[in-house]
Specification:
Elements lengths: L4 E8 L4 E9 L9 E3 L3 H9 L3 E4 L15 E9 L2 E10 L7 H31 L10 H18 L3 E8 L2 H8 L1 H18 L5 E6 L2 E7 L3 H16 L10 E8 L6 H17 L5 E3 L7
Parallel strand pairs: 10-11
Antiparallel strand pairs: 1-2, 1-6, 2-3, 4-5, 5-6, 7-9, 7-10, 8-9
Helix pairs in contact: 4-5, 5-6
Length: 293
Amino acid sequence: ADVEGYCLFLLEETAGRLVVRTTGGAGTEALQDLKLPLGEGLAGRVFQTQSAETHGSKGPFRWPDVPLDARSVLAVPLVSQNTSIGVLTLFSSAPAAFSEQAVAFFTVVANQLTAAVENARLYHKTQELSYRDGLTGLFNRRYFEETLAQELHRAERYRMPLSLVMMDIDHFKDYNDTYGHPQGDQALRAVAEILIQTTRRVDIAARYGGEELVLVLPLTPKDPARLVAEKLRLATEGTGFPSGRLTISLGVATYPEDGGSAAELIKAADDALYAAKQAGRNRVEVFARASSG
């Protein structure tokens, strides 16, 4: 088969559409940013029917996903465990370029591509899982430490502020002793969920250890960070937990004024958290040099 161009579409699950991942050959430049609703165009149809199609034409094809100068097109679905994950389309300027052998050959190629795509996805998933805390679904301490270092580097480079909020559940040991560890785990998950719901996508929420959670707020000065912490405190206080009321104490520290390194910033936020507990819990304290002793 005289293949002059190709295009690989993959399913973008969140948006429910096909997006172009890679193209090559004459006339395919126009397809690079193409996004196809499922069922639209030749690739959209083949994605849904899961059966390869080949077409020849004397003039341009009417589909939006086929280059104008193509006179032959072959579209092969990428199918994994009976589920479509994408489509490989091949083009030629010759009117009847794709024989049955070509269809068979490119079906094998599509199967190999499917395996490669699935392996890559699996790898990303396991990478993601290795950075997640199994109980809460928040990022784990390792990810937090790596990301804080990166964010601090960025803050330093662009002279931007960065805030850190450390929090823990008040009297959590008593709660566990009273209601048992399964209820304690449930409470921790519920607080983690509040954290996820209350923060922006750019913020990094992690489990620091035990009942201690931490939040990295990029590009955030001290006052807005204090407001975020207060919002979290109020949301937790206002949530009905299965075993009654739970509260959290929070400490806020900001780069550069409270610390120039990750270790200094963590210590400052931890000191502020300690101050919040000393002052009676269920409150937000901002790091202050004088009170830190």
